[in-house]
Amino acid sequence: MVIYSADIEDAEIHIDAGSINYNIEAFYMKNLNGDEKLEMLKNKIRNNEKLTSDDILTLSFIPLMSSKISKSERTLEGIELANSIEDSEVKLKCLTLLYALFDKFGDQISKKRFKEVFSVTEIGKMIRDDGKSEGKTEILIKQLNKRFNKLPQEYEEKIKNLPSEKIELIATDIFDLEKVEDLEKYF
After folding, report:
1. Distance separating alpha carbons of residues 160 and 183, to the nearest angstrom
2. Is residue 74 exposed (0-12), middle (13-18) or buried (19+ Cβ within 10 Å)?
3. Other C-beta atoms within 10 Å of 111: how many?
4. DSSP character for 176?
5. Strand ranges (DSSP E) for 14-114?
6. How far is residue 187's CA from residue 182's CA, in Å, rounded to a whole number?
7. In angstroms, rounded to a whole number, what is the distance separating the alpha carbons of residues 171 and 35?
8. Ranges for the DUF4351 domain (predicted)?
């Protein structure tokens, strides 16, 4: 089965390649009214009703359905609606599925808005914190390489496994380190 967004009205469903024939079952999202589905989901979420797996998928596919508004506007409405879900696990599922679709169908406006919404979720904060920590670690390794002309690989590996507080401590103490072996006290 191939799912086609509302922009596609007709597609090849049979391909004859000689000894191999392909028959595709096409599902056209243009046949689904995204405005009605969005309204139904808004009511369900407003009333704090439990969302089913089908509801989560429906919300995720809203941007691909037919609508009176643009794909970008539908996407932004889907993001806002997903963000208003109180159950953090369901919210995360919806946002994750929406993100997966953005990679293929999203425009820059939708991606930017998604990033803003996702960054304030728990997993968004965790990813951002992990990224910051990795960045600090990489900068510290570069500084130590410059300070000591070459940082042994074993020290690089040990530094990569240190908690953020130790990385910051080494960065603060970097000018007090006289030789590379002085790093031992941090491991």
Report:
1. 13
2. buried
3. 15
4. G
5. 14-16, 21-23, 26-28
6. 10
7. 54
8. 130-187
Q: Give the residue from 71, 69, 81 showing the smallest Cα distance to 102.
A: 71
Cα 77 to Cα 82: distance, rounded to the nearest angstrom? 8
- Per the structure block, which two tokens stand in for 12? 């090849």
pLDDT score at 103:
67
Q: Where are the domains of the chain?
A: 31-120, 126-186
**Higher pLDDT, residue 144 or 99:** 144
Q: What is the pLDDT of residue 111?
A: 76
What does the alpha-carbon distance between residue 125 and residue 88 come to, in Å, rounded to a whole number?
A: 13
Instruction: Please state the length of the chain.
Output: 187
Kindly give, in sequence order, each residue whose CB lies less than 8 Å from that of residue 152, ignoring residues fewer than 6 positions away. Answer: 180
Residue 112 clears pLDDT 90, i.e. is over it: no
| pLDDT tens, position by position, 26-77 | 889 899 999 999 999 999 999 989 999 999 999 988 888 999 988 778 877 8
Report the chain's C-alpha Rg in angstroms. 25
The DSSP 8-state label assigned to residue 18 in this structure reads S
pLDDT at 42: 94
